[in-house]
Design goal:
heterodimer, A: 90 residues, mainly beta, Archaeosine Trna-guanine Transglycosylase, Chain: A, domain 4, 7 strands, globular, B: 385 residues, alpha/beta, Rossmann fold, 2 domains, seven-stranded parallel beta sheet
């Protein structure tokens, strides 16, 4: 199986796209099953691994890297449009 | 994996190389060291741009610490010290810091007999010392006597996704083996105080982490003013990094995810094992010198834009974050972590890197060693006068 995404740490609630993923494309990565992306995801960007309600923390590298500002659906692109820095609020 | 081996030193440390180091105390005598290098290519000649002209207590502390640590370094079996005579770190003042190194040290000063004669005497001593330490044999190296430094430089958007993640996996493996892993670059920890402090062994280490990062942030603001707010750039965001914490995590994840046992000063020898943070700068050359001075026998160095830099006496394993730069700089880069993008499982890449590390420890030369790409410079905090 050629992997097209990477789950960096088992605690993470996002994975990283290793190449540009098209809407509907299946995520192939160790530790991730039954996930298709809901929209186009650029290479090196984040994909939500499950539904993440607004206000919940985004975990990457096993650590809190941001807080999401609105409900994020499983398979959605996670970036500056739906999260903010935990420390420096917008 | 075959057992790892090294050279046992009198102080209980182990080297993975057995060099005769030719070290100038000050840049004024670099020419002498370069002459010796041309005459004896197998000598480890380490010219540098410092040694005088800075007077602050902090700069003096760093100067003496780095030079002394080069002498003490476990990968060094014998030393030839080339001094000038009137420099700040002159051989007389340096002596108390190096006399307990437990290895042969020969000292020459250019103001005693001039550069040509010093080069000649130095070369003769070098041949003698090379012959003297040649017979020393490798013995099994216990994992808990190994310290590996993790460095990154010339990073790109993939560095935090491929190379640093792979290096982080190696870090976790090493810590589980009982080895010590050290990383520095405090400017690249900005925004992560809350996550790193939580991983600290105790409150004292947590306090030091928070303090170190706050200072790094303040220095950045003092020097760069408003520009400091651009620490996460539009280019970073295009690369998928959404916050400064995420960008910094991508950098410091090369240290893996274990408990942080100690924060050491720049070039300071750790008292703890496991994962150690060094309070040092991000600039590659300065950072490598501090990590080597802390006693690392080996380094991993991730790069996305590509750098050939190595460090004198310390094998540096270069890890490319993408296949394009790996192909372009194949002569300089040892590992291609860009293979993760092409679908190679992380565990497979990690295992290949661990196997390569074992071979390098046992004597296989890295690309930077083969090519002679050593860089030796170190941090200063005040301007010269």
């Amino acid at each position: 199986m050629k992997e097209n995404a990477l789950l960096i740490h088992p605690r993470d609630n996002v994975a990283v796209a290793l190449k540009n993923l098209a809407a509907g494309e299946k995520v192939k990565a160790r530790g991730i099953e039954g996930l298709a992306v809901l929209q186009e995801i650029p290479a090196s960007h984040k994909i939500a691994l499950r539904d993440i309600p607004a206000g919940e923390e985004i975990i990457k590298y096993g650590e809190i890297v941001a807080v999401c500002t609105r409900d994020i659906k499983k398979g959605e692109w996670v970036h500056t449009h739906n999260l903010e820095s935990k420390r420096w609020k917008k | 994996m075959k057992a790892i081996t090294g050279y046992e030193r009198k102080n209980g440390k182990y080297g993975v190389r057995n060099h005769v180091l030719v070290l100038p105390t000050v840049s004024c005598v670099n020419g002498v060291v370069n002459r010796i290098s041309r005459e004896i290519p197998e000598a480890l000649c380490a010219p540098h741009p410092h040694g005088c002209g800075r007077g602050s207590p902090r700069d003096t502390q760093i100067l003496f610490r780095i030079l002394a640590s080069m002498v003490h370094h476990p990968n060094v079996g014998a030393v030839i010290l080339i001094g000038l005579g009137c420099e700040r770190s002159n051989t007389k003042d340096l002596k108390p810091f190096i006399e307990k190194a437990g290895k042969p040290i020969e000292i020459f000063n250019v103001q005693d007999c001039g550069s040509l004669q010093t080069a000649q005497k130095g070369a003769e001593a070098c041949r003698r010392l090379l012959a003297e330490i040649k017979g020393q044999e490798r013995v099994p190296l216990p994992w808990d006597k190994l310290m590996v430094a993790m460095e990154c430089g010339g990073s790109d958007a993939m560095s935090g996704v491929t190379a640093n993640v792979a290096i982080g996996a190696v870090s976790d493996w090493l810590v589980a083996k009982g080895a010590t892993v050290i990383f520095g670059e405090n400017t690249e920890m900005i925004g992560t105080a809350h996550v790193l402090a939580r991983r600290a062994k105790n409150d004292e280490v947590a306090r030091k982490i928070t303090e170190m990062i706050a200072q790094a942030e303040q220095r950045t603001k003092n020097i760069m003013g408003d520009l400091a707010s651009f620490v996460i750039s539009p280019g970073n965001m295009d690369g998928g990094m959404s916050t400064i914490a995420e960008k910094s995590m991508g950098c410091i994840f090369k240290g893996g995810s274990t408990t942080i046992n100690q924060v050491v000063d720049y070039g300071e020898w750790p008292a703890e094992k496991g994962l150690i943070i060094q309070d040092g700068p991000g600039y590659d050359g300065d950072s490598m010198a501090g990590l080597a001075a802390s006693g690392s026998q080996l380094m991993f160095f991730s790069t996305g834009r590509g750098t050939p830099a190595g460090f004198p006496g310390v094998p540096v394993i270069k890890v490319a974050s993408n296949s394009r730069i790996y192909e372009a700089m194949k002569d300089d880069l040892d590992v291609n972590a860009g293979t993760l993008i092409e679908g190679k499982p992380l565990e497979e890449l990690r295992n290949e890197m661990i196997a390569l590390m074992g071979r390098v420890i046992n004597g296989e030369k890295t690309k930077a060693e083969l090519n002679g790409m050593d860089v030796f410079t170190f941090m200063t905090v005040h301007p010269p006068f």
